[in-house]
């Protein structure tokens, strides 16, 4: 008899506890659904303060030492030219020399490629500059024909532009995007007759740096434009608030 009473009591207690847990689950579920998710945008335009530029020059000769000597003459002429244009010696970097053997090649009567006899050496060297004098290096890259006119076989690359204070820009954009998202959430809550509660979650997107007013695509891992001196950075912040 006592065992039956105890069993009934235990069962009743379990039933009550089950109802309590179910009630809390429903309450928490409803609470979790009573949220607002918004995305804010932070944007900043700025001008690059660092530029890199490079070019390459080469010499061909059947004698390796003669090719080295000729390349060294060109290297000195290029270095002197750059210094004469106001480039600091410490900003001028010459790479190691790349050596390629050249062969006379032809297609035989069956159309097969045939590598013929050795015809000489091709030596190539690269010169690069990194400077904060953006305008000066820009002008230099545009007038590089002055080097070519001195009889040097020189190929110039397009400059690349960077910004050294990007960390500060990112912080400003995060603050702007967060403010934008919160204002959107407050407006939504106000229009629905509610008020914002606690912030539950914040998710930051990747930074996208593009040329202003361009049609560059954003990428999943972030875009970083280096071809434009003027840049526009964007970042998104997603906030999730409880609603009272």
Automatic annotation (TrEMBL):
Query: Which Gene3D superfamilies does the UniProt entry name for this protein?
Result: Protein of unknown function (DUF541), domain 1, Protein of unknown function (DUF541), domain 2
InterPro entries referenced in this protein's UniProt entry, alphabetically = 26kDa_periplasmic_antigen (IPR052022), SIMPL/DUF541 (IPR007497), UCP029033 (IPR016907)
A Pfam match is SIMPL
PANTHER family tied to this protein? SLR1258 PROTEIN
Q: What is this protein called?
A: SIMPL domain-containing protein
Species lineage, top-down? Bacteria, Pseudomonadati, Bacteroidota, Flavobacteriia, Flavobacteriales
